[in-house]
Amino acid sequence: MSPAASRAAYEIAPGVHVTTSARYATTSTVVVRDDRALLVDPAWTVAELDGLLAWLGRHDLRVAAGLSTHAHHDHLLWHPGFGEVPRWASRRTAELADEWHEELSRQLDEDYRRRFPDSFRSLTGVDAGPLADPFADGLDESIELIVHDGHAPGHTAVWLADRGVLLAGDMLSDLELPLPFHPDDLDAYLAALDALAPVVSRASALVPGHGNVTDEPLARLDADRRYLDAVLAGADPDDPRRADPEMDDAHRRIVELARER
Fold first, then answer.
1. The whole model's pTM is what?
2. Cα torsion at 230, 200, 48, 110 (round to 10°)?
3. What is the residue extent of each domain of the chain?
4. Dist CA 40 CA 27 (whole Å)
5. Is the pLDDT of residue 135 over 80?
6. Helical residues (DSSP H) of the chain, grouped into ranges
7. What are the backbone dihedrals phi and psi of residue 139, each rounded to the nearest 5 degrees, phi first?
8. DSSP for residue 170
9. Per CATH, is 3-127+138-260 categorized as 3.40.50.10490?
10. Residue 7: which pLDDT band, with cuts at 50, 70 and 90?
């Protein structure tokens, strides 16, 4: 088994385990209660998904449900070994996963398409608010979905109130600049930061879709706001994430959006 496939999840809060892919530092989160697990954005490579399945088996965990935070291909992945269980997303995400199916499939590796075909057609749309409890019948008030249109239409953050953990999807990363793309909508991104702010202020840990877990969630929110405020003011932001050359195009496009706005 490759190092990526054998990478173990680590526990960031009671019953919340995170593993990070070698590709784009993509995070997968496993929320555990008793012997059951909710998988949020399991990713990335076939070997890593095999490794996550093996990790679940070693810990005698049964997958109860899955959840995708948004309709980008790296957040819609699934392993058949996780089982025929409910796979949730916001209603808009579920619609887009179906509408964009062919384009999303083309973005996947041939190895993934060959082993796990048609991953994107089995999402069930759910509303913002308390999530139907993956661990029992009824609603679990401790799992709340916060739906907004920052980064992608119908993007969803998962607030684990009883664990103090916010799963932010592709927001509030220490590696990526704000990415208000597909469609390009800077106002929607700013509104998303406002929607997340009340929960960020209560969280003791934050998991971005790409990047490192932090125990200072407010610092992540402040970093995104400072960056966007500077761009909107026509200034050149001094942000450490810009040291990554892969962020150059994103920064240029954000500057263009700010000028158009």
1. 0.93
2. -50
3. 3-127+138-260
4. 9
5. no
6. 3-6, 46-58, 91-99, 101-106, 110-115, 186-200, 217-232, 248-260
7. -105, 140
8. S
9. no
10. low
